[in-house]
Amino acid sequence: MSNSIPLRGFGTFQADSSVYPPGTAKKGVLTALKAGYRHIDTAYAYSSGEIEREVGEAIRESGIPREDLFVVTKLHNTFHAPEDVQVGIDFSLRNLGLDYVDLYLMHNPYAYAKGPDFSTLRRPDGSGKPVIDLELSRKYPETWKAMAALIPAGKTPLGVSNFNILKTKRLIEETGIVPTANQVEMNPYFPQFELLDFCKANGIQVIAHCPLGGALSPSVTNREGPGPLEDPVIKSIAIAHGKTAAQIILAWLTGWGICVVPKSADPMRIESNFDMLFPLSKEEGAQIANLVGPRGELGMRNLDNRHHIGFDIFDEHVDQPA
Fold this sequence. Notes:
Elements lengths: L8 E3 L12 H12 L3 E3 L8 H13 L7 E6 L9 H12 L6 E4 L27 H5 L1 H9 L9 E4 L3 H11 L5 E5 L7 H9 L3 E5 L22 H10 L3 H11 L3 E2 L6 H7 L8 H8 L16 H4 L13
Parallel strand pairs: 1-2, 2-3, 3-4, 4-5, 5-6, 6-7, 7-8
Keywords: NADP, Oxidoreductase
InterPro entries: AKR, Aldo/ket_reductase_CS, NAD(P)_OxRdtase_dom_sf, NADP_OxRdtase_dom
GO molecular function: oxidoreductase activity, acting on the CH-OH group of donors, NAD or NADP as acceptor
């Protein structure tokens, strides 16, 4: 089992599974592993375990020794009841065909009402929106304690995902258990410097999802217009280095010590994005850091699920749902 999280990761989320035929994730992971990636990020929530199964198939077909890989998956929102946490990780391990994962994250700080076989109950209004278990959503520290009970069994290091400062503080204060990592949206248009500083001060490794701006499910996408890949400043730095805009963004993030999990189904982009561990000048780094203000104050969150779940999990003043 790996002791540290590789900076270069490969993400497997597919924003619209109807666009990609079955097997797309498997092909992408095989390409990524061949290119040199060893950190693979997935989740039970991605197509109800189907992507986990494809990741597992790719790992087995790659022939790469298990101990050389760093595999991350996540506790789905229907497994938040303390008695269901063990079931959640067992579902994922069975999907992956693995005995352990190297990092297990609480995918979100809120819970869905569970249906048969831990499926997600949907609202009866035809909107397709999930039914939220508000009581469990307020008790995410209890879910975290149940996850921590897995550590003595040698299952996996634990972390969180999509946690802001307020919720991470509460988690630590009420349980005394500091997450190994926090996977959050982070890119030049939404750098989250305050959250980054908080995590560093508490020894929490930040993993950036949507590091290139992100393709999210339409139900939770907020930003309109071009993302950082189209930014003229980033493009000009890319030209100066003979690199792509994606490579510049990833180099900027990893230069901060942030792990990244870019995703793509395009073999050329997967291979190209692996070339990210090169230095930018101090001036270039400052240019990118100031694209949305000196402290990122003009940045816009792309992941906005307020209308999908009915409350704002990123509110730093009130721990929602209140």
